[in-house]
Fold this sequence. Notes:
The structure holds 3 protein chains of 3 kinds.
Chain A: H1 6-25, H2 43-66, H3 73-90, H4 95-117, H5 122-141, H6 145-148, E1 177-178, E2 181-182, E3 186-191, E4 194-199, H7 200-221, H8 223-233, H9 235-240, H10 246-270, H11 281-294, H12 301-315, H13 321-327, H14 333-343, H15 351-365, H16 370-380, H17 385-398
Antiparallel strand pairs in A: 1-2, 3-4
Chain B: H1 10-17, H2 19-24, E1 46-53, H3 60-77, E2 103-110, H4 115-127, E3 133-136, H5 140-153, E4 156-159, E5 176-178, H6 183-198, E6 203-209, H7 212-228, E7 231-238, H8 246-254, E8 259-263, H9 266-278, E9 285-286, E10 289-290, E11 292-297, H10 300-303, E12 314-317, H11 326-339, H12 345-364, H13 369-376, E13 380-381, E14 389-391, E15 398-399, E16 402-407, E17 418-424
Parallel strand pairs in B: 1-2, 1-3, 3-4, 4-5, 6-7, 6-8, 8-11, 11-12
Antiparallel strand pairs in B: 9-10, 12-16, 13-14, 14-15, 16-17
Chain C: H1 2-32, H2 39-57, E1 60-69, E2 75-81, H3 82-97, H4 99-121, H5 131-153, E3 169-171, H6 172-175, E4 184-186, H7 187-209, H8 211-221, H9 223-228, H10 233-255, H11 265-280, H12 285-302, H13 305-310, H14 314-329
Antiparallel strand pairs in C: 1-2, 3-4
Helix pairs in contact in C: 1-7, 1-10, 1-11, 1-12, 2-4, 2-5, 2-10, 2-11, 4-10, 7-8, 8-10, 11-12, 11-14, 12-14
Amino acid sequence: MLGLKFSDFALFMLVVLCVALAPILLNPFPASSELAQFNAGYPDLLQRFVIFGVFAVGFNILFGLTGYLSFGHAAFLGIGSYAAIWMMKLLTMNVIPAIILSVIVAGVFSLLVGYISLRRSGIYFSILTLAFAEMSYALAYSVLTPITGGETGLQPKLSDPRILDAELSAGESPAANLFGIGMRDSYIVNFGDWVFTFNAGYYIAGLFLLVAFYLSIRIFRSPFGTMLRAVKSNQNRMSYTGLNTKPYTLAAFVISGMYAGLAGGLLVAMDSQVGPERMFWTASGEVVLMTILGGAGTLIGPVLGAGAIKYMENILSKINETVLKGWFEFLPDAASEWVVLFLNMFTGKSWHLTLGLIFMLVVIFLPGGLVEGGQRIARLFGIGKKRNQTVESDSAASK
Amino acid sequence: MTKKTPELNRRGFIKATAAGALVTGAPTIFTSKAYGYANDPGSASSVTLGFNVPQSGPYADEGADELRAYELAVEHLNGGGDGGMLNTFSSKALSGAGILGKEVKYVTGDTQTKSDAARASARSMIEKDGAVMITGGSSSGVAVAVQALCQEVGIIFMAGLTHSNDTTGKDRKANGFRHFFNSYMSGAALAPVLGNAYGKDRKAYHLTADYNWGYTTEEAVTQATEAMGWETVNTVKTPLKETDFSSYIAPVLQSDADVLVLNHYGGNMVNSLTNAVQFGLRDKMVNGKQFEIVVPLYSRLMAKGAGANVKGIYGSTNWHWSLTDEGSKAFVKSFGEKYGFPPSQAAHTCYVQTLLYADACERAGSFDPCAVVEALEGFEFDGMGNGKTLYRAEDHQCFKDVLVVKGKENPDNEFDLLEVVEVTPVDQVMYEPNHPQMGGAEATLGSCNAG
Amino acid sequence: MEAIILQILDGLNKGSAYALIALGLTLIFGTLGVVNFAHGALFMIGAFCAVTISRVLSISQIVLDETRTDFLGKPLQVKVPYVDQWFGPEMGQLIVDWSVPISLLVTIPIMIIIGITMERGLIKHFYKRPHADQILVTFGLAIVLGEVIKYFYGANPVPTPAPSAFVGSLDVGVLIGLDPFTVVYPYWRLIYFGFAAIIITAVFAFLQFTTFGMVVRAGMQDRETVGLLGINIDRKFTIMFAIAACVAGVAGAMYAPINAPNYNMGMDFLVLSFVVVVVGGMGSLGGAVLSGFLLGILQSLASMTEVIDIAPGINQVIIYLVAIIVLLTRPRGLMGRRGVMED
């Protein structure tokens, strides 16, 4: 089906289902309940889930298959974003040209960076990619301010030319759209006490994730993917057979760079603004962490990792002291004070602490990332054996 | 913020208006443009404000102080505490019964001092919690990014600490308002004081943080000091992420400059000032004159990090807790009694912005962003710590007296770092809305967006 | 000319910090084969040891002074440090003044304990794991350590002055026969450079001239063979980790007066120190030190106005530009060994 074997097709269908139903699945708590704090089914976060999913899936094609650890992928995301916003400023607020250009520009840039960086391997390669990304960041922040907007970044303005778009009527501001469907347009459905928001932008981004995910499965299962895995297991042996591995690794690098560019373009399409810190090394590090946290070399892992990190960043950081106090009102005063004081060390302004602890716990107890966690749970209940094996063979092959 | 009251957000409103559909269980369909304005609290008993401040990263302490001020403001708006500046504010529309009779609630988020994170957190407050207004921030990059977002979705943005000219200059927006002063005002206020203190024939060497705020501050200070007769010997850009400024300070020794201007803020300022003092610049005599250092924008919280190095160094600030007008006294009292230390200028501007927003809603009789914009434009008020103040209609910038301060030689306590040297009257820092430093003729507010 | 001498001097100072951090990182890489992303955090903890000691030394008794008032109009609280009471005001002042050098006495044992705990409790379980896992776990640890420091000390920098005897600067120019006031450099930074030179020499001497060092060097070359010889290499590696942590810690403590420490300073140094190590060449201690000083000097020279005028923005990217050029012309950095972390 779709050129996939059954287990992959089942996995893909599961992802399709998850993407389609995410606005419902991620809003499990009624809007009026205390637990609504944990709902993640609002457009902005849903969009970020799928966009960073695309980013991580692309990164995994390089890292998961070839073992080349790039520490500069955020540069491609950033450059894709700048390309997209310039399209929106000059041509049209329609997202299609913006996204196409972002993929192309990121592809060209990653070809350049990859061609140079892939002359080295191991940590030398990592540092080369890091160097390119940090240079892009530093220059975008300072000397390139006329093109990048510097610290304040770029947003569409009323005064931009936008040659393809009709003149805006008075009081209207430029809004990203797909042939008239606004990225911010939503259908809100009330069902009892539950509120579900179905956002146009999210579903468009979700579609891109599905395409990206499908392509990634095809790449994993193709002879090309096998070749990349062979590079990972022993590059020397490959060279001895007289095979030049560089075209393969370079292709993988450019593909993952284009995924990053696509993610950057989508970020702009959903929320039309760019800032240079998108290219800072911490952003590059984030996608590495997403991939490892979810499970490098597995198909679904990077998407899970991206979701987990974005969830913590957006949900945990909003739980402040007042919220905690509200939750534990039922406890006696002294007890509630202590509980709040304790939990407040992990939420709100201290959410980074929880992030760090989770990184450590996952990597200590679940060496295969969240995917392994899922497998263990599945094994516990004795289900999903079939899918299990395929995922495991993924990670086995990638070791 | 928990959602004890489902009616407090946009969805609550939809729920209320679509009660019929609810009964039958049929889905209600809603697009963002279907109703009057974004996040209308409707008949709900409370209204939600979004406080978006840096809680992690280098400005976390400043963010924490902003949050304290917001909590205090909410308390006062809801009639708690001693009322703070509500008692001294010239407009008497607010009565301590919330805003338009609705109880004020709030949600908080972490900007991380990154524009992406700040927008994500603002969008979550708007989309998930139904906030009618977003406020806060501690850098101009974040302020410009969030202001643009608020313009797009039709929410009011009340800027926190942002000093770059751009926020109400080339990047001004109809839905955005700034109470804090800006680079131009710093330059205009500082120049005469510096002229009096150091003479009119000085040679200045500028070290400038290499990003937008640095550029606008450098431009403002060089123009103002050159107009007075100073010469600008050199301007050098320093990388934002630089932590050791020694290699930029060293050449100053070899130039014939006799004043060093540090266009740095926050951690940059602490380090560059510390480094400059380490190199013995302040003990140096050049051209027969004592070498001097100037820091155009002071932050007391950050100045603390530079320790004794700030003594005797001139700079400007938006507000300082040692002011003795009624408004400042009332605010310092309620803040100090609640938290045990005096508020920072960031806390002050955030507190005032919240009150100003609430007052505008009250006077407009609505939360409709366009009505609020109308109520704030050209609004004149007093009793908020800076004397008579005008919210100018053309660029949504507050015009008020600017404080020129100096690092105190013999501080009484750990908060007593700065002393006010001069209160520069507002006329002296006034400029045309289309001033070249403010984006020139091209800069436009656009029109208000109600979502 | 004077300008260049001054920048080279400054580069040596900058390079001292880079070299010390890179040295520790390379010890860990080279001996244990572990990518330690928490190394910057160890530097930061060292700096906060200095902060803590200076706070402990100035723990004060609070006396109410009725004649003066604080900002709320209440009687002012005057703080009198206990050391003043115990040793007399003069001696007390001196102790508080010298808190940074004194803190070294405490920093060393603390860092050794932290080093041993880290290695035994966490790192040792990651010897056989892929580098990616090591990165994730040590990065997580770095975040946790940073957040813990932030919880106690806040996010703002904490001023930690050097002893007042070392405030001010030395006219280096006069010493080498130039005009007065042309090449002036702060005392404490010169001390830092001297301190770094001593530490680096000590580490090299330790590895070169002791039996322990010999075994460790052998272990760096070929861990398995040394293990087969019946030598308990694990114990030795624990000690090496403690030494590396200690080097980072004292480097941080002495750095505190140069720039007021904040909880994020470890992250600021992290990426830079990795670049330094890689440019020097993986597994080469000499390379790490050499490239630390080299990059420090180049960074200083690139920040000269004359250079920036020719190539705008060069000061922003010089380190990375040099890294790219070095890695492209010398595949394993300046002095790297074949096969170390190349896969």
